[in-house]
Amino acid sequence: MIALLLRDLKLAFRAGGGFGLGLAFFLIVTVMVPFAVGPQSSLLSTIAPGVLWLGALLACLLSLDRLLALDWEDGSLDLLATAPLPLEAAVSIKALAHWLTTGLPLVLAAPFLGVLLNLPVPGFFWLVMSLLIGTPAMSVIGTFGAALTVGLKRGGLLLSLLVLPLYVPTLIFGAEVARRGATGMETQTPLLMLAGITAATIALLPFASAAVLRINLR
Amino acid sequence: MSIAAKANALWEYANPRKFLATSERVLPFFWVASIACIVVGLVWGFFFTPDDYKQGSTVKIIYLHVPTALMAINCWLMMLVTSLVWLVRRHHVSALAARAAAPIGIVMTLIALVTGAIWGQPMWGTWWEWDPRLTSFLILFLFYLGYVALWEAIEDPDTAADLTSVLCLVGSVFALLSRYAVNFWNQGLHQGASVMRAGAITGTDTEEKVSNVFFYPLMICIIGFVLLFIALVLYRTGTEIRARRIKALLARERVGG
Questions:
Q1: At residue A13, does pLDDT exceed 80?
Q2: Cβ atoms of residues A99 and A137 within 8 Å
Q3: DSSP type of residue B202
Q4: In chain A, which residue's Cα lies nearest the Cα of B159?
Q5: Which residues pair with B56 in a beta bridge?
Q6: Chain B interface disruption, residue of A46, A157, A160, A168, most B CBs within 10 A
Q7: Where does it reside (chain B) (predicted)?
Q8: What pLDDT, on the 0 to 100 scale, is given for residue B187?
Q9: Is the Cβ pair A216, B163 closer than 8 Å?
Q10: Mean pLDDT for chain B?
Q11: How many CA atoms lie less than 13 Å away from A19 in the CB half-sphere?
């Protein structure tokens, strides 16, 4: 399992693995927002938590189609499926690798982008906190979407259409935490809900992803 | 004993030929009954009920709005059940019924949303309000779109049936989750949705406040739409089965010739 994780991480860091692409996208989206809505800092600080959450979500979505597609093309997915390691575990490791290479950098970059959007000071902690708890769910749900569309030639757009509705609860609770944190309201309830969604998806969704992958590899 | 026999009788319709023969026999009845119910219900509702003292004649859109909204949700439920049946018992008719139902669900959701907007404009003063109920319907609409798109995208019919079934199961959980998340989210936005109270047309409020004058035609409309839904699903499932057969015949011809 650790070997698989290390392999995925190596692939992501080296030779056009797309590491950093998500980060760059996150930066660009954040920079474009003031151009779209105007530069008033009061307006920007109101919408900053939501915009940063949406940007992180889209950046995550963007990197999903590479999650399994490369392994599908060169046949290593077939090897994984026949390996002694259960496919559920392999899928979980894939999601973990995706989170380490995409989700975690987004979490770390978010506060700096928060400065650009004039995020209120108490919001920083809660933004990082909510993203830290929420992004694993995005990786796991995204792995499910990638497994669904892995055999398709033009799966990218379809992938977004399938995955975005599944992101709705995570986005709602995550952005709610960041927004409440920024305005100094209590954040416990949405934070616990967000953590619950993340825990449940990590526990259950790999089974669905593995089942779907088996169907696709049939 | 008799229940087991009945259950067996139900599974007989998993045989496409049996399904087609029976559905063709009962379809005319469903068509006539559903159209009769809808016509009677709508005419009664539109022309023979008084205007509401607060809402005027706009209240009459309820005869379209409530039945279609009801069917939009029940259609997804039906797809959930048939998807489960397909995954467990591998009856092709079941998977095809789920496929046949999805576009009907899309149309029902769309009608419910549009009629709601048309009613909301004069009543709430806005076409759209990010109210939990409206929002969750919009999300349901997106789930339908994804489901249909996945069906269309996959070439192999059995793979498509499997994948869409799993998507339907997972999607149901997330749709339910979204429903409650949206409830929470909007409470966070404006405390206590006063607009909906003033409108008093939603779910439970309707049943408490709508008087019998409106209730009977509404019931007839709902029955009519349920029958219409059944007729459409049977009809479209039949079409899907025939399309599948034609494909098989063509494939056999190509191999044989």
A1: no
A2: no
A3: S
A4: A215
A5: B52
A6: A168
A7: Cell inner membrane; Membrane
A8: 60
A9: yes
A10: 82
A11: 16
SS3 B52: strand
Asked, for residue B17, whether it belongs to a domain, the answer is no
Question: Which domain, by its residues, includes B228?
Answer: 23-256
Give yes or no for B174 touching A (CB within 8 A). Answer: yes
pTM of the model: 0.86
Buried/exposed code over A72-95 (b: 16+ C-beta within 10 A; e: otherwise): beeeebeebbeeeeebbebbbbbb
Query: pLDDT tens-digit profile of B106-143?
Result: 999 999 999 988 888 887 778 887 878 888 889 999 99
Residue B250 lies in a domain: yes
C-alpha to C-alpha distances, A97 to A8, B137, B234, nearest whole angstrom: 6, 35, 46
The answer to whether residue B1 sits within a structural domain is no
Report, as an integer, the average pLDDT of A140-163: 88
Q: Is the confidence at residue A185, as pLDDT, over 90?
A: no
ipTM of the complex: 0.88
∠ CA B46-B52-B55, nearest 5°, is 100
Q: Is B251 exposed, middle or buried (0-12, 13-18, 19+ CB in 10 A)?
A: exposed
Residue of B nearest to A153 (CA): B153
pLDDT bin (cut points 50, 70, 90) of residue B7 is low
Count of domains forming chain B = 1
pLDDT at A186 over 60: yes
Dihedral angle sign, alpha carbons of residues A112, A47, B117, B186: positive
Q: With respect to residue B82, please indicate whether it lies within any of the assigned structural domains.
A: yes
**Backbone dihedral angles phi then psi of residue A117, each to the nearest 5 degrees:** -95, 10
Spatial contact of B139 and B96, defined as CB atoms under 8 Å apart = no
What's residue A18's pLDDT?
A: 63
Dist CA A156 CA A66 (whole Å): 9
B199 is written with which tokens?
């409108």
Provide the shortest C-alpha distance from residue A13 to chain B (in Å): 32
Q: Which residues of B touch A169 (CB under 8 A)?
A: 174, 177-178, 181
Please identify among residues 137-196 of chain A the ones whose CB lies closer than 8 Å to any CB of chain B.
Answer: 144, 148-149, 151-152, 155, 158, 161-162, 164-166, 168-169, 172-173, 176, 179-180, 189-190, 193
Q: How far apart are the C-alpha atoms of B255 and A190, rounded to whole Å?
A: 60
A46: Cβ contacts below 8 Å, ≥ 6 apart: none
